[in-house]
Write a structure and sequence with these properties.
Length: 119
């Protein structure tokens, strides 16, 4: 699913996983999306890349994303995300890029990450 920089408004749909459970990429960066990252997205079965940067997202990064065993990239930069980075993300063995700068996150980075992860 690619809808980058097309002036989308509204919220990220929680039921997207029911409609297209085998989606590999979600790219809705550079839009005007509000609300939070749905915890339901943790049930996607083949998701490799999430690009949701440069929107108006708020709330925390759901710990449920830590169950996305195929996830390689999570880019949620330049939003209004709060809270801490979920420790559950450290178990994602394929995660290579975590780009979350430009948010209101607090706390320390989890201490255990894969050796090839880029921030």
């Amino acid at each position: 699913i690619i809808a980058e920089d097309v002036k989308l408004i509204g919220e990220l749909p929680a039921d997207l996983v029911d409609l297209v459970p085998e989606v590999v990429e979600i790219n809705v960066a550079y839009n005007q999306i509000t609300g939070s990252i749905p915890s339901e997205w943790g049930t996607f079965t083949a998701l490799k890349r999430i690009f949701i940067g440069d929107n108006r997202l708020s709330g925390s990064i759901p710990s449920e994303l830590g169950t996305l065993s195929t996830l390689m990239q999570l880019e949620a930069y330049n939003n209004d995300l709060t809270g801490t980075i979920p420790a559950e993300l450290t178990g994602l063995s394929y995660l290579r890029r975590l780009y979350i700068a430009g948010n209101l996150l607090t706390g320390k980075l989890p201490t255990v990450w894969g050796p090839e992860l880029m921030f």
